[in-house]
Amino acid sequence: MSEKSLFIYDGECPFCNHFAQLLELKSTLPDFEIIDGRKDLALLSQLYKQGYDLNNGAILIRNEKIMHGANAINWICSEIKKPSDSLLEVLRIIFSSKKRTNFLFPVLLWGRRLSLLIKGKIWQPVSSNRQFF
Question: Which pTM was predicted?
Answer without folding.
Answer: 0.85
